[in-house]
């Protein structure tokens, strides 16, 4: 079915039509400085295509939540766990519900993690649910940055990987990426290069104008035109709109953003007693208790979101039948523990990356027929860290060990295993593990890195490291009230030697 939507007026007064089916196959990149009309363009695209295709809008500023009032989009608040967002995204594809992922109020790293989990859930949906979806990502430079910023490397890699999957591999899964950015220079090249359609708006920097002209196949002398474009005017190129650069003016929209551009309003006449109005009641206000704003309403519970999604499901569509028999949670946990023990019994497991171990773990789970949803990567990392610190049942059930597990959650996933190995020695009164053991648990051959980790724990106030008169190391845990027995920091890694034999 050939469906074209009206985006506004092209040069000469003709309607600027966009082939929606071609857009789903070729993707779209929008560029323009702040205030050039990118959000207006995306809103026009969403409103015009709403009757024809499912939408998923990644909205970092909460500008597109108003689509819910007129077009029935479901608003998903990003203030929830990554596992919840992944599950919601899978249900969205299954039930074909248009949504707006509202990331307003989250810091940049949280926004990147939430978007990565949500896009990953849509990308990993079952093949039976690969229906066409228009995935619109506003301010795409946040989620696919060209260079490292103030966020962690893990968050950047997760978000960049999800965006790369959307733009490069999403087409076969029915996902059509529409990304908007303020500057092409801020956007990762491997993400921008996958788009075949372009809408270039107003920009001022020479490098951005030159790059926009190159993408549109224009002469560099014509690049100056991007500086003179009015708000809401763009130059289009691509199989979905025009085979040659085509100036267009985006048409009006029916909904509006909650935030608008500031408007000038005249100042009121200055009162004669301005000083009295400003300063007279300061002392009285100081004595009064401060007026607290009411807390914002809590986000909609995930269970309610999933219930709303389930209502959209056609009654004639059969529920998917599980391939595995029902099993209680205790048996599932036992199977997961067994698979984890088998994984760690491999002598080389300590020196393999978490990503490789995770893939090996998933394969072993499928071989063992472990029922239920596969563990997400964050949950696997946590389980891996706990499994490396082997403790008996009595120790595992003790309050001291449970408190040690709680303390480890203050640290990043990659160092929790080292912390728990040392904590296990302290709780059981065993000698402090040597540097070689700590290095193996950390996944490196460098004992210097292992020693630096102990210094890092000490800087965080979690441990106190000291050396006795014989040169042996003792690590104390002030919050737990326990410490390790003296241990030789230069001693051999006994477990690795036994595995090698």
TrEMBL record:
UniProt keyword annotation of Thylakoid present: no
Keyword tags: ATP-binding, Nucleotide-binding
Transmembrane segments: none
Keyword Nucleotide-binding listed: yes
Disordered as annotated region, ranges: 480-501
SUPFAM superfamilies linked to this entry: P-loop containing nucleoside triphosphate hydrolases
GO MF annotations in UniProt: ATP binding
Top-level lineage group: Bacteria
Residues of the Helicase HerA central domain: 14-76
Protein name: ATP-binding protein
Annotated source species: Paradevosia shaoguanensis
Lineage, uppermost ranks: Bacteria, Pseudomonadati, Pseudomonadota, Alphaproteobacteria, Hyphomicrobiales
């Amino acid at each position: 079915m050939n469906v074209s939507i009206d985006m506004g007026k092209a040069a000469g007064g003709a309607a600027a039509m966009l082939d929606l089916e071609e857009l789903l196959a070729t993707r779209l990149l929008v560029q323009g400085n702040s205030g050039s009309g990118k959000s207006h363009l995306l809103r026009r695209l969403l409103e015009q295509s709403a009757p024809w295709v499912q939408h998923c809008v990644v909205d970092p500023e909460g500008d597109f939540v108003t689509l819910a009032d007129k077009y029935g989009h479901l608003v998903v608040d990003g203030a929830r766990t990554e596992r919840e967002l992944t599950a919601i995204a899978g249900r969205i594809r299954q039930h074909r519900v248009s949504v707006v992922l509202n990331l307003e109020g989250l810091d940049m790293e949280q926004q990147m993690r939430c978007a990565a989990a949500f896009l990953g859930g849509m990308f990993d949906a079952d093949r039976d649910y690969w229906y066409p979806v228009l995935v619109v990502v506003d301010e795409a430079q946040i989620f696919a940055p060209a260079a490292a910023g103030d966020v962690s490397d893990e968050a950047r890699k997760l978000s960049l990987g999800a965006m790369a999957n959307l733009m490069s591999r999403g087409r076969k899964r029915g996902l059509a990426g529409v990304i908007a950015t303020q500057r092409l220079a801020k956007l990762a090249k491997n993400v921008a290069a996958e788009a075949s359609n372009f809408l270039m708006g107003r920009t001022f920097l020479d490098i951005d104008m030159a790059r926009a002209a190159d993408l549109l196949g224009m002469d560099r002398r014509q690049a100056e035109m991007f500086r003179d474009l009015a708000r809401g005017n763009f130059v289009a190129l691509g199989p979905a709109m025009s085979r040659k650069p085509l100036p267009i003016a985006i048409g009006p929209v029916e909904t509006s953003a909650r935030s608008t551009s500031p408007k000038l309003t005249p100042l009121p006449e200055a009162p004669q007693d301005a000083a009295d109005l400003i300063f007279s009641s300061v002392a009285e206000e100081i004595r009064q208790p401060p007026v607290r704003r009411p807390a914002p309403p809590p986000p909609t519970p995930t269970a309610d979101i999933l219930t709303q999604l389930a209502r959209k499901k056609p009654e004639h569509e059969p529920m998917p039948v599980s391939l595995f028999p029902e099993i209680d949670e205790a048996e599932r946990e036992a199977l997961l523990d067994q698979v984890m023990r088998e994984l760690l019994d491999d002598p080389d497991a300590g020196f393999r990356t978490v990503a490789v171990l995770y893939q090996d773990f998933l394969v072993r789970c499928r071989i063992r027929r472990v029922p239920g949803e596969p563990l997400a990567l964050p949950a696997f990392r946590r389980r891996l860290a706990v499994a490396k610190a082997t403790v008996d049942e009595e120790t595992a059930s003790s309050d001291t060990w449970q408190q040690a597990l709680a303390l480890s959650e203050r640290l990043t996933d990659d160092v929790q295993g080292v912390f728990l190995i040392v904590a296990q020695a302290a709780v059981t009164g065993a000698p402090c593990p040597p540097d070689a053991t700590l290095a193996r648990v950390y996944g490196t051959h460098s004992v210097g890195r292992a020693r630096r980790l102990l210094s890092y724990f000490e800087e965080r106030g979690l441990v106190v490291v000291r050396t006795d008169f014989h040169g042996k190391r003792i690590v104390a845990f002030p919050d737990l009230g326990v410490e390790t027995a003296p241990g030789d920091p230069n001693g051999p890694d006994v477990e690795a030697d036994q595995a090698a034999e």
